[in-house]
Specification:
Elements: H1 7-27, H2 38-46, H3 65-76, H4 80-90, H5 92-100, H6 103-115, E1 120-123, E2 139-143, E3 146-157, E4 164-171, E5 180-186, E6 192-199, E7 205-216, E8 221-223, H7 227-235, H8 237-262, E9 264-265, E10 268-269, H9 274-299, H10 307-331, H11 343-350, H12 360-374
Parallel strand pairs: 1-4, 2-4
Antiparallel strand pairs: 2-3, 3-7, 4-5, 5-8, 6-7, 9-10
Helix pairs in contact: 1-3, 3-4, 3-8, 4-5, 4-8, 5-7, 8-9, 8-10, 8-11, 9-10, 10-11, 10-12
The chain binds flavin-adenine dinucleotide.
Flavin-adenine dinucleotide is lined by residues 122-125, 130-132, 155-157, 200, 202, 206, 352, 355-356, 359, 361-362, 365.
Length: 387
């Protein structure tokens, strides 16, 4: 396998697999109603998983993106909701704090992330602008020695569980994308309110949050005019989001393989029919091709991945996951559509992939522009370097 896994990586993945298969698999159905998977999170905190993205000096493991992706993949094979909750702790919000926040804030927040006591939320999307960051309206004014935050964010994960909110905001009403910075808001701060909840087909809840003249100390401004830096950290999500998609596809695939051996029709196991064997072969082929590009993208992270290869990996893996989880339902016949088997859950989770962390449409735009700009008449595709 390229890139090759070290013995430590293999051992860590094996430990997570044992925990996920023995405990998370059974509990997965109970989290479909929006319940936060606290039990699983505590178990993962004990293994150091929640601190994977936190530097060692703040109590974490300080591991590369690739290790984090491997662990998310393994968790997603049993429980999408848990994988998404873990993504909140090892993804963009922790990386923004770890890379850009002042030392005092890192010391205050990051140890709690590692122990699972400090759940983090990221607040980017607004009711009138998701992909279109240049139109974000949330604003933070500097007034004397204070920050005053106003705005509405929506489709926010973990709003009820989070202790800290990493909020993308304009600073002093500076217009455009480059005017976007980032502030930290602690739960319970006056003027902060969760104003709405949506239940999703994946199982988790998403929320609307309102900031009404929220007063913050100046040190809570983590970045101003920092959009490029925020975007670099965000590129990590383009490796971690698809690692969940990959895990969901593998989970569904493993169920499908089991089922074709157990289920009989016309007096023999359905796995004896060429129609089923070819489906299994296609699923396997699709998974392994996608794994290759994703692992390659992860291996470019230093500390953040190549944005274009990560974007290409994300689109590839997200779309593969939908195909494979859908085929796993087909293999299960009518039972695949019920809650009796986990394949319908995998499919519902897989639908998220191409929506969060950059939609497939906008990532195709990004890749297309770069390819047209940079492909060289002499070196051809090699001029794109990462490609
Ligand atoms: C399960 C889940 C969890 C989420 N958690 C969070 C969270 O914790 N924090 C947070 O901030 N957000 C979160 N989101 C929101 C998510 O980030 C947004 O849904 C996403 O960024 C897309 O924004 P939008 O929904 O406003 O869609 P829009 O930006 O309105 O896009 C609508 C459609 O138009 C397309 N489109 C837009 N621009 C272009 C273009 N230039 N070219 C071609 N097509 C285009 C899009 O691809 C999409 O298909 C979550 C969403 C989901 C589903």
């Amino acid at each position: 396998m390229f890139p090759a896994l070290t013995d430590e990586q293999r051992q860590f993945v094996h430990t997570i697999r044992e925990l996920a298969q023995s405990e998370f698999r059974e509990r997965a159905l109970q989290y479909m109603d929006g319940t936060f998977p606290w039990e699983n999170m505590k178990a993962l905190a004990k293994l150091g998983v929640l601190g994977m993205a936190v530097p060692e000096e703040y109590g974490g493991l300080g591991l590369p993106v690739f290790d984090t992706a491997l662990v998310l993949e393994e968790i997603a094979k049993t429980c999408y909701v848990t994988a998404m909750a873990v993504l909140g702790e090892v993804g963009v919000q922790t990386r923004i704090i770890s890379h850009y926040a002042p030392d005092a804030i890192k010391r205050r927040i990051l140890p709690g992330v590692c122990s699972g006591d400090n759940i983090l939320a990221i607040c980017m999307t607004e009711p009138d602008a998701g992909t279109d960051v240049a139109n974000y309206k949330t604003n933070t004014d500097r007034v004397g020695n204070k920050l005053i935050l106003n705005g509405v964010k929506t489709l926010i994960s973990r709003a009820h569980e989070a202790q800290m909110f990493v909020v993308f905001t304009r600073v002093d009403k500076t217009p455009g994308r480059e005017g976007i910075g980032c502030v930290l808001v602690e739960k319970g701060t006056r003027g902060f309110e969760v104003t709405g909840t949506y239940h999703t087909m994946g199982g988790e809840n998403l929320h609307e949050i309102r900031f009404d003249n929220v007063e913050l100390p100046p040190e809570n401004l983590v970045l101003e005019d920092g959009f490029r830096k925020l975007l670099s950290a965000f590129n990590t999500q383009r490796c971690l989001n698809p690692s969940i998609s990959l895990g969901l596809a593998e989970g569904a695939f493993e169920e499908a393989v089991k089922y074709v051996k157990e289920r009989s029709a016309f007096g023999r196991p359905i796995g004896n029919f060429q129609g089923m064997r070819w489906k299994i072969a296609e699923m396997y082929r699709d998974i392994e091709a996608s794994r290759s590009i994703l692992y390659r993208a992860c291996a470019t992270a230093n500390p953040f991945p190549d944005p274009y290869l990560a974007a290409a990996a994300k689109v590839t893996v997200n779309e593969m996951s939908l195909r494979v989880t859908s085929e796993a339902i087909q293999v299960h016949g009518g039972y695949g559509f019920t809650d009796e088997y986990p394949v319908s859950r995998f499919y519902r989770g897989a639908r998220y992939g191409s929506l969060g962390g950059g939609t497939s449409e906008t990532l195709r735009e990004l890749i297309g522009k770069r390819v047209i700009d940079k492909t060289d008449p002499i070196d051809g595709i090699l001029a794109l370097e990462a490609f």
